[in-house]
Amino acid sequence: MSRDYEQFPEDENGEVLWQMHKDGDDLTEPHEIEFSIAFTTEENADRCALHLLKEEQKISLFQDEESDRLEWVITIYVYLEPCYEDIVDLEQWFTKIASDFQGEYDGWGCMAYVYDDIDDEDILTS
To answer: CA-to-CA distance for 28 and 25, rounded, in angstroms?
Structure first.
């Protein structure tokens, strides 16, 4: 399998998308991608959460007690086909929002959607 460097550039996002593609994930299907922003104060997290809700974003907010430091995390759920340009654009937007509310953009992730092509003839019946 040959890598298309326009579709999967040589950076962290390109590497993740390339690995998803190599693993058989169908990148033409929409995925729920989770972007995270971390905060050191609950007040800033609350203000940012309200801003994101006003921007009509689907979010969750929780206190991460397992972190090395006490922090609050907002997860933003975006349903889209995982393409490099869209992910980079959203990262830039969420990085700016994080900065506006004294938070730190903390990356993205999603569940893989891998489908096996199984013919009816391949299914064993008893």
So the answer is: 9
